[in-house]
Design brief:
Blueprint: H1 28-36, E1 42-46, E2 49-53, H2 56-79, H3 86-108, H4 112-131, E3 141-146, H5 153-165, E4 170-174, E5 176-177, E6 180-181, H6 186-190, H7 205-215, E7 219-225, E8 228-231, H8 232-235, H9 240-244, E9 270-272, H10 278-294, E10 299-303, H11 313-316, H12 322-332, H13 346-371, E11 376-382, H14 385-392, H15 396-402, E12 407-412, H16 417-432, E13 437-442, H17 444-447, H18 451-463, E14 468-471, H19 479-487, H20 501-519, H21 526-544, H22 548-564, H23 571-594
Parallel strand pairs: 3-4, 3-14, 4-7, 7-10, 10-11, 11-12, 12-13, 13-14
Antiparallel strand pairs: 1-2, 5-6, 8-9
Helix pairs in contact: 2-3, 2-4, 3-4, 5-7, 10-13, 16-18, 18-19, 20-21, 20-23, 21-22, 22-23
Amino acid sequence: MTGGRVTARGGNDRVIPADGMVLSGHGGRGEWLSSNAVLGARVDLAGSVLTIAIDETTYFYGVEQALAKAGNGITSAERNCLDAPLAQARAAKSEAENLLAQARVASEAHNVDTAVELAEQARGLAEVAWYRTVESRPVEGRGVWVRPTETTPAKVEDTLDKIDAAGFNIVFLEIILQGYTIYPSAVAAANGIPAQRPNMAGFDPLQVWVDGAHKRGIELHPWVESFFVGSQSENGGPGPRLTAHPEWAAVEREDVAKTGPQPSSQEVGYYFLDPAIPAARAYVEALYREILTRYEVNGLHLDYIRYPVSQPWQTAGFSDSTFARAAFKAENGVNPYSLTPDDVLWAAWNSWREEQVTSFVAEVRKMQQQVAPHAQMSAAVFADPGDALSKKFQNWSDWVAKGYVDVLAGMFFGTSAESVARDAALMRRTAVGDRNLLYTATYGPFRGSTPDVVVDQIQAVRDAGSDGAALFAYNQFSGAQALATAEGPFRTTASTPHSDLSVAARTSGRWTAGLVADATGRCIPAGIAKNVRKDLGQADYWLRIGKPDLAAEAYTAGASRVSHAADAVQPEVAKRLLRDLDMYRRWSLMAAELG
């Protein structure tokens, strides 16, 4: 807040001006601020009483800020030779300016309602103008997690229309929800578990989703919660799996003496399977096999592929089930319940738990390659590999090294573009490297972020080395956010990199060659542009004849030219070229590894 007005919103990391302050709240107070402290609102703080006033001038201020942002975006896109529909952006900005002028006239005539209505229309168009200055790529992952609530085929089709209009090309559909499958499962029924989620009985939602997604050119990847089986708040107990098989439950250290399944203390109210128990593992894998063999899905997306949070170890360590304690003792000669971090075998206990998860991922990978070799294996993982390993025994960097997954969806919970970019760069630098695709998960919809923050986060993870972005989740995805993706970063149709890495590199390389040609003489000297285009053409040739390793060398040569001539190339253009050439190099190397 500056000068008595709200001048910025969101998870911002910026200097607070001398006459400024920050309004912040949590829970109900945070929700109140989010709803009322709109951009341009007048703010008065008298002691402990905060008053927020909104009138037509508030709306005018919002339009002025949106117009300024659009203008800056257009100028920046022109200066940086960005591939964007700037004529359309200017047209939207011009129309917004006209509407704002009409709103001011209405205000002067004391027609407040009309003034506000016109100002809202003006701001919407100004925002669209800015969205149109954002880059939209021809190849990238554009995922969205969907928790299905649709109980008829018609409702599924309606949701898919909205997902398609927003520009997504991957749906991660939650098909195992609170321990129930949304489809009629023979595996569940054979294990004494209800065959289908009760409110979805009467049709096969998964088949409708698969058919509907494919009809629209969208990939469908079942989102499966591997070891999480339900919450107390949703089920009023441990849920259908642990009701039928309480012996499968993961047991927290403090609950060893208790009878029956108990929820996690750190992930409050959540129940989990023990990854070490063979029958529990076999059941989960059998479900995955059923999904991959019955439905033409494009992949399998593993979530909760870990132990529950196991710190502090004194109370929250998992899993001290009877089976796990006996199995570890049989291998190591000691009951792990008696161990502390000071004991020599504590590291072995940690490694043993890590191996229960990693070996399960390996088994699922082997099964997937046997029954559905076309399907992509992906996993939702925590960004910091050290944190994931120490707290949850999730060693995803090992999965990458061993080729157990094709795509990682790093879960980035930050509220700003800068924070998610840091996490994406950390994953790429520390563990993902050149061996895996990274579709960064951003939580803008879930957090109720403004549409511009959602767009900024998508841009930020692209620039930090992600091969795509995935938004969590559709159920909180607002109409305003959908407009932002459709007019902005997801404006053009895009194929997924994983569908064919060589084709992805060729398609993107030709797009980049076109951008270089358009920027020649304005942002890139002619000689440099000619040589970079030559390198791109050489890479395309090598990919066309099936030599992706040589294509990677050509992309490296192009990047070297740009680096050595960085002083002569417009800085933002050089950054984009280096980012993209490195991406195409990675895709080519992965294609070479796949053969």
